[in-house]
Structures are given as C-alpha cells and as structure tokens.
Fold each of these.
Amino acid sequence: MATTKLLRPGLPKEVQSLNHYERACYHACRLARRYRGGLDLAERYLERVEKGYGGFGVEAIRRDGLEVTAEYLNQGDTYTLTVLDCSEDGLIVSTWGDWLETAESEHYEETGEQGCCYCGEMAECKEHHGSNWHGWACQDCRENH
C-alpha cells in the first residue's frame, strides 16, 4: 500500500473503503497532526476507538547509512497499516515495511547503496534488487557465509 499523507481535513477517497481499524489509523494521524500530539496521541486515540487494539508501543526504525529515520506504532506485523512519524514527512499512515522499502529504494537511487540481507549494512550494489533483496549480501558477508 502506498503512503498517503493527510494534508486535507477529510479522508482520501481510497481510504473510505478500508476497514474500521485502518480508517481509525487515518483519523489518529489527523488528530495527532492537528494537536501536535505525536505518536502518543495517535496511540491513545486508537486505544479508545478500536476495541481490542493490541498495539505494542512506539518503536524506531534506524538504518546505518540511511539519513531518514522513523518511529511508528508497532502493530505486531511489518505490513499492517499504522501511524509513522518520519524525519522527513512528519506523521503519515503506511506500513513500516512499505515505508522502509521505499526509503531504501530512494537511498539506492541516490547513492547506489543497498542494505545487506545478512547484516543490514548499506553498501554499494551494482544491481538493484528492489523487493527481491533476499540474496544480496555485502562483500564482508559474502566472504563469511
């Protein structure tokens, strides 16, 4: 799912067909932006309106070599919609897996570096593997695996 920034007061048309929890994420994001409450306010909103909300608190995404970082409401699954607070974009709604893949892809386009599937270190890669990163390893890991 592509990241959707909430820049207007209503929900985007593509959001209206989402389930109750997913719509609640957009409302939580909008509320937190409006009152500058960050992820804490978004999480409190979800706890109140979403019965059985089972979030696992706020977690951070930081990758060596990537300038962009984010914090997000951990939902227990990489591709479950959530609210993220990104260093570049502020509060957005996406999955943290989609967000990280996009950030790594943009980093590759700018620098030619990709994250090693073993150690996560960003290193130069001659061929971009996109979402098929499973087999790419940096020089150090290729020599040791």
Amino acid sequence: MVERLLKLGEAKFSSLLSTLLVLMSLGYLGAYLKFAKPRGFGGDFYAAMFTSGWWDGTGIFYGPIFVFERWLVNWIPALATIQFFAVGSLFLIILSMILTMKIGKFLKRDNLVCLMVWTFNSYLYYSFSVVSNPELIQLFFLILMWWGLTSKNYTVAWIGLTIAALTKLVPFFLFPILLLFFSWTGLLASVLILIVALVTLSVGQGESVLSLVSQTIGMNTSASASNTSSPQPDSEQFLGLSSAIARVLGMQIGQDFRVVTGISNFIILVLYLLVITVAIKVKRLNVFIKHNVLVAYIFALFMSLLPILHLSQVHRHTFLYLTPVWIALRIVYVQDESLERSGKLLRLTTWLFIAYSFLPIYFLDLYNVDNLQGLHFGSGFLPSSIMLTEPIWVNLVLIISIVCYGVTKIRHTSSISQKHS
C-alpha cells in the first residue's frame, strides 16, 4: 500500500514536493514560535556554550569541534550568537537530507520518502528548537560516511566518522564499520585529522595533548561533574534504557539503581556485540549482492544503536540519529528478492516510524512525569501505556528487527550455498 501511494506520488511529484516543503517550513516556523522563541533556544547547547555554569571555556567539553565553536563565540560574539547556531542547525538538517537523497541517486520515489521522513520527524523540529548543534553536526558527517562507503570513497567515510567522533565521542563505537571497509588512506587521513585537532587544541587551550586526550575520553573532564550517570526516572529529559526500566519498575530517586544500571548496560553490550557479529557475517557471506544495499544495511544496523549507546545520557534530541535509518532500510527492502520478506520489512518500518516520531509526543510534551511516582508498569492502563510510549522501546524493537532481518538473510544465503555444494 505504501509503495502504491509512492507510485501515485511520483505521478504528482511537483505538487507533492511543494506540499511537503510547505509542511516542513510550517513545522519549523511553529517550533520557533511555540518553543524556541519563548525560551531563547534554551537547551544543553546554550547552557554549555553561552553560560559559565556548565563550562568555563577551559579544557575540553563534549569534543574538539565544540571547543572550536567556543573559540568562534569568543572571537566574534556579535555574530556567533545562539540565533547564528540555530540557523546553522537548519542548514545542517537540510544538507543532511540532500546528502541522503544523493545516496538514493535523487530518484523521485526515494526523494519523496526522504522528504516525508524529514518532514514528519518530530525529533528534528525539537532539535532545532533547542539547537542540538553537536548532534546535528554528527548526523551530517555520519551520513557523509554512509555516502563515502556507498560510493566506495572510503577515505571520505573515514573522515566523516572521525569528525563525528571529534564532536562527541559516542560515534567512535561505529568504528567497526570502517574496519569492514578498510582503507589505509582513510586511516591515515583520520590520524592526521586527529593529530591536527589535538595539537590545535593544545596550543589554543594551553594544555598538554595527553591532558586533552584524557578529557576527551571522559577521564578528567570538567563536564563529568555536571553529567548524571545514574537513571533519572523522575525526569522526561532522561530517556535512556536504565531510566525507562526504572520507571517501569516504579523506582524513585534515592533508591539503589546499581541493578537496573547493570541490567541496562548488559543489554546494550549484548546488542552491540550482536550487531558487530551480524555485520561481519553479512559481509563475509556476501548476503547482499549489490554494494549499496550491503552498505545501507550495515549503516542502518550500527546507526540504530547510537541513541541507546548514550547509556543514561539519552535525551530527546539523541533520537535524531535514527533519521537516516529509515531511508537505509528502504534501500534494503526494495532490493530484496523475496516480496514477502520485503513487504514485512516495509510494513514494520512504516509502523515503527509512526511510533518513533508521534507516539512519545504525549509523554514528552503533555504528560507530567511526576504522575508516575509511586507507580509501576501494571499499576493502571494510563501509566502503563505512558511507560510503553518511551522512544527507547521503539529503538530496541528497531535494533532487534534489523538484526533479525540480517539473520534471516544469512540463513537463506547459507542454505543456498549448502544446496550448491
């Protein structure tokens, strides 16, 4: 049904394109008027970049790219305002969409899907309203990595992931992708970028390279004191797996979260290792004959992990990393030789996208999380329903679905190989 609607959309491409662009423009205008303007684009980025309460400008915060941006703010304060970075966020969102379209070779149907994902993705509007600058920089460069892998320009892929990891460290966990598509030139480029960034930081911040490295990996950073490492079940601003599990169990601040944190971290570790294993087998067994489909699957596999890999530091804007995953999965299922399997993945991803983008809005924007205090899953229909709408559960289902699809393809390929041997 979805593909039939897309086919109809192709016939009326210009009018549908215009409609989606108008809706997107109205969405960002609404986000500005309703949320961003009254709060002055207030959020983590504003607090860290423009106030001394979070960071006084010494050492390193988030990553080298963030420090370079702080230098720009100090150098040209009249230009590098929060509004400047807000406009930059819009440009990053648009550029990320255009680059994703390029990966899809600008085909009309793929362009429509891409536009729909970017238009109806609630997390992008929220990210603009709070100027999620580091995450949007990472999103762009991770999509650039995807383009580099797809076009077999592996050096660009290495550069993309390196810059993303220099913005915030978490994308480093996507490094196994680059090992699957190894490039000595790419490795050299990444090492050079890393050296230049650290030496520049060392000179500019007046600290040794070793000190900056230790801060970058979180061993002695001034940001550590302000970060909350334990679950926060009393706040809808903390959407990590450990906080979600704590809410399901009815736990409150002051209780011992060690078991919950241990369970959460164990699940995340198992999923990470499972994703690496499936990715290796998919590539080794040549499960996907077309290179662009193989890359799209592996990219979707690892990108779906990014929100959950932030552990307890998962916020609403963290889920914007899933934006290109829906496009990557479309590239996968439209090339599947099994119409039944392709149809199942299509229906699943459609419903998951709806649940991802729209289902959590009530919990995140309208519901008072204090109403959950003293309650646990099963206490009543409404609180139980609210707990199930947390985006981390959709994220988990998405990861498991992508893994299961890969396992199905691996088994199918293995059975064919056995028949021919």
